[in-house]
Give the backbone structure.
Amino acid sequence: MSRIVFERLFLRLNVPMARNSSTAFLIEDPKYTFLRELGLDKKNVGVFNGNWKANGQIIQSFSPAHGKVIAEVQAANANDYEECAVAAQAAWHSWAELPPPARGEIVRQIGDALREKLQQLGQLVSLEMGKILPEAIGEVVEYIHVCDLALGLSRTLPGTIFPSERPGHVLLEKWNPLGLIGIISAFNFPVAVYGWNSAIAMVCGDVSIWKPSDTTPLTAIAVTKIVESVLRKNNIPGAIASLCVGGKDIGQQLVKDDRVKLVSFTGSTAVGQQVGVEVQKRFGRHLLELGGNNAIIVNSDANLDLLLNAALFACAGTAGQRCTTTRRLLIHKQVFSQVVSRLKTAYAGVVSKIGDPLLSETLIGPLHTPTALEAYKKTVAEAIKQGGKIEFGGKIIEREGYFVEPTIVTGLPHDSPLVKNECFAPIVYCIEIPDLETGIKYNNEVEQGLSSSLFTENLGDVFKWIGPHGSDCGIVNVNIPTNGAEVGGAFGGEKATGGGRECGSDSWKNYMRRSTVTINYSGAIKLAQNIKFGDD
Ligand code: NAD
C-alpha cells in the first residue's frame, strides 16, 4: 500500500494523526464558495432536533477527487441521539394533527427551497460524494420530483370502503401515520434517498431521524438546513426532521430503538441483513434497499447502437457506484464479439473524460474512498487469477484522488463467486449466452434482485421477460439501462436486495398503519357469517 493511500485510510478511520492545525480545508478555497452559500462552515454541527448541538466525535469530510478535507463535522453521541428521539416524538403530536394537505403544503415549500439551492447543493454532492455535476444535480431534482409527488399524494391519500355483509354496518380501511421513523442512508445517493423517504413520510404524518452516511455528512447538514428554513418559516418544530450524523454506533442505536416504528435502511446487503434481523427482534417495521448485481441481456436481435449508448452509462457511469449499475452483460453468442469490441471503443472514448466531477467536460468521477479503491484493485487481481481477461482498464489512475479505469472483463464463468458479488466499482463482466432462456437463468441466479434490462426488438421476448418466468428483479426494463429510475414507480428489489419499495406507486403504505374499521349504525348486534350466539 502506498504511503499516501495508507495515510488517507488512517484519516478515514478517524484515527488521530498529528496534523498541522493550520491545515487548509477546501471550504476555505474561493473555488468552493457554494459551501458557504449552503450555510456550511469549517467546523459544522451534525445534530439537529430543532436546535443544532452535538457532542460526539469530530468527522472529517473528504473530497474523493482530491483526497483532501472539505470541512469538519461534530457527530452525535448516544445522548444526542436520545435527545433527538425525545424531541421528534414530542413534535409528532402536532404534526400528525395537521391535515394531510397542510403537510403537503410544507413539502411543496421544501421542493421550492431545494429549487433555489439546486446548483449549490448539486455542487456539494459532486464534491463530497464524487459523482459528476449533472448527476449530482439530477439527484437533487429527484428530491424535488418526490416533493411534487408527495404534494399530490397529500390530497389523494386513499382509504377504501367495502360492502359489509351486515345490514346497517360500514366496513372501511383507515390509514394513520406510524409516528417516528428512522432513515439510514448510503453514501452514493446522499440527497435522493433521504428525499424519497422524508417527503412521503412527511405527508403521511410521520416525523423522522436521519442517520446519513458518515462519509457524506456535509450534504446531510446542508439538506437539513434547507428543510429547517421551511419549518421555521411555518412555525413547525424542527424536530420533525431530525438529523443525527454518526457512524455504525448511532445506526445501531436507532435500529434497536423501539420508539422508531419503521427503519428505512439503504446500504449494503451485509449490513441490511443485520438491520433487518435487529428490527424484527422487536417487531418493528423495516424497509430495506440493499445491494444489486444488475444485468443487461443483449438479444441477438437487439438494436446495438441503442445498447452501446445505454451500456456505457449503465456500466461506467457514476464510476460504478449506483445500486443499479450494470455489473453483468449477458450477450447472445451471435453478437458477443461485436458488442465487446464496440464497448471497448466506447470506453476508450471516455477515459480522457475521467476527472474532477465538478468540471463540465468530466463524464466519470472518482471512487468514494480509499477502501473502495482497494476493493477495485483486489477484484481485478482476483479476476485475472481466476482466468478472466481484462479487455479494458483494470488499473488505478495515478493522480490525486481515488480514480480508477472503467473495466471490462471477459472469460469468467457466469456463476463464479466474483461475478455473483457486488463490487461497488466500474467493473463489468461480459458473459456469452446461447439464448434468452439461458440469459434469464443467469440474470436470476445471483442472490440480489434489484434491476435488470433486456435489449430486444422482439415483442414476444419482451413479454417472456416481464412474465412469471422472466426477470425476478424489482426493476425490469426493456431497451433502457438498468439505472436511472423515475420517481413515479415503486423503487426497490427482491431477494438479497431486501424487498423494500420506496418512492412512487403505493410505497406510501410503508409509512402508515392500516386499521380495518367496522361501524354499526343498525341499533342491533349482528355477527358476521350469520353466527347465532345464544338468544338473539
Ligand atoms: P453501508 O452498508 O456501508 O452503509 C449504509 C449506512 O448504514 C451508513 O449510513 C452506515 O453508517 C450505516 N451502518 C453501518 N453499519 C451499521 C449497523 N450495524 N447498523 C446500522 N447502520 C449501520 O453502505 P454504503 O457503502 O454506504 O452504500 C453502498 C451500498 O448501498 C451498496 O451495496 C449499494 O448497492 C447499496 N445501495 C442500495 C440502494 C437501493 O435502493 N437498493 C441505493 C443506494 C445504495
